[in-house]
Design goal:
Helices cover 39% and strands 21% of the residues. By secondary structure, the chain is α/β, with parallel strands linked by helices.
């Protein structure tokens, strides 16, 4: 199978200490030079913020994307529909719905038909049912507004609400909008101890995109002096080049292929990475991902 590959611009956005930062234009040239088919664009500063791209700037960006010969696989939005639970008088969900609406307009202007969104993080004093309701209502309105621009919203399995694949399937059923799908990633079910093939099978009808990064586990301990011993803490997860971590991506992609998946597979480097954040190391890891995908 020939996979469609995209490079997430967060990989060169300087978002973690020591990571090289490229301008959006330089990133586009980088993605093309490395051999990617498309790009996933971080929809916030320092890359693609709706605050910085008026109509003229969008035309220039679209022309740049076309001139280098890339497709925009999706715009990566950043949402938390449970945000602001301690300050209910602030219309945080309305603000985020407006943000997603403007991203849909921006996506249309860039010949892109997909926006990545998140659900919400758990907060103190907020019940599961309350968080669920906020996410369902917000996603439903986002989907309806995005539909006006011919855009689909893809919920990534990242934030606390509905992060397990069975719950995410329930969430999409509750939203019940034809253009609300999922951008389903392998790392969350892998960390949860789920069977990746089973998880993909459950989500397959809704998957329109996946974003990839590989990780290793690193055990953590706290020293307890009176006992002259250590207490086990939650493992740390560290990013490594593709194929060097614990996630069974061959099983994951095999299940996607069997399900008839035809969306983009995006690679991201959005946390401290083995080898550091130099441009040379980022380029090496981005190339290793392409080599991995060519062999899957």
């Amino acid at each position: 199978m020939r996979w469609k590959t995209a490079l997430h611009s967060v990989s060169y956005a300087g978002v973690w200490p020591g990571q090289t930062r490229l301008s959006l234009e330089a990133f586009l040239e980088k993605a093309k030079a490395l051999g990617y088919d498309g790009v996933m664009l971080m929809a916030k500063r320092p890359h693609l913020s709706v605050l910085d791209y008026d109509e003229a700037a969008r035309r220039r960006l679209r022309d740049k994307i076309q001139s280098v010969g890339l497709a925009v696989a999706c715009l990566a939005g950043y949402t938390d529909f449970c945000l602001g639970s301690q300050r209910p008088e602030i219309p945080t969900r309305e603000m985020q719905i407006l943000y997603v609406t403007e991203l849909a307009r921006l996506a249309r202007d860039l010949d892109c038909s997909l926006i990545r969104v998140f659900t919400g993080y758990a907060g103190p004093g907020v019940s599961l049912d309350q968080s669920w309701g906020w996410c369902v209502e917000s996603l439903r309105e986002c989907a309806r507004r995005a539909a006006q621009f011919g855009v689909t919203i893809g919920v990534q399995n990242h934030h606390d609400t509905a992060v397990h694949h069975a719950s995410l399937r329930d969430l999409l059923d509750d939203v019940a909008e034809p253009n609300c799908k999922t951008m389903f990633d392998a790392w969350a079910p892998a960390l949860q101890g789920c069977d990746l093939v089973e998880a993909v099978g459950a989500m397959a009808p809704h998957v329109v995109h996946t974003t990839v990064a590989d990780y290793v586990r690193r055990p953590r301990f706290t020293y307890v002096s009176p006992l002259v011993n250590y207490v086990r803490e939650t493992d740390a997860i560290r990013a490594v080049p593709m194929g060097e971590g614990f996630i069974d991506y061959r099983a994951f992609f095999g299940a996607l292929a069997k399900a008839g998946f035809d969306g983009y597979v995006a690679y991201e480097m959005c946390s401290p990475l083995r080898g550091g954040g130099s441009e040379a190391n980022l380029d090496r890891c981005a190339t290793q991902f392409l080599e991995f995908m060519a062999a899957v």
